Amino acid sequence: MKSLLLTFAEKLSLSETQLKEILLQPLTEVLNSPGLQQELNSLDTSLLKETLPTAGGVLAKELPPFYNWLKNELGVKRVPDSPDHTTTWVIGFLHNQESLTHLVELHRPLPRPALEASIPRLIGMFEDVEDAQVRQEWQKAIAALCLVLVVAAREQDRAAVAV
Predict the structure, then answer these.
(1) Torsion angle, CA of 87/123/79/111, rounded to 10 degrees?
(2) Cα 69 to the chain's mean position, in Å?
(3) Within 10 A of 2 (CB to CB), how many other CB atoms are there?
(4) Do 12 and 140 contact (CB within 8 A), yes or no?
(5) What is the pLDDT of residues 50-93, one digit of tens each?
(6) Cβ contact 139:55 at 8 Å
(7) What is the CA radius of gyration of the chain?
(8) Where does residue 75 rank: exposed (0-12), middle (13-18), buried (19+ CB within 10 A)?
(9) 102-134 burial string, b = 16+ CB within 10 Å, else e?
(10) How far apart are CA 156 and CA 163, in angstroms?
């Protein structure tokens, strides 16, 4: 399985060096950074909205085994019981009804090692999407959202160590 940094570097327009720097920053700095805003603003939200049925199909098929893997292989205790939660959140985000801070709060209980291990697999769910543009845009969108989650998880770990 690909490393987390390599996965992010392939899907986002950021180098591994830039990613390492981002992952050391506080969440508030990253959320307000021009780099993240540029990544999010570069998403083709029209294409993403237009292809929500495609993404919904991918998530409906791929998330249940992914959730089982999280629970049984990575020991994650709280796992959604259906893909509806994720699909609904992504739709809400694309329609500006959900925020990145809410995404972070939803994922706070997830242990950082499990979160980081799961991201390449989550992004990889879209590998079989035939249309290259659709596949790349969804992978980029998921990668950008996951980057925020990793920044938050690492910040939380640093705060726990400092206490």
Answers:
(1) -130
(2) 17
(3) 14
(4) yes
(5) 998 999 899 999 999 999 999 999 999 888 877 877 777 777 88
(6) no
(7) 15
(8) exposed
(9) ebbeebeebebebbbbbbbbbbbbbeebeeeeb
(10) 11
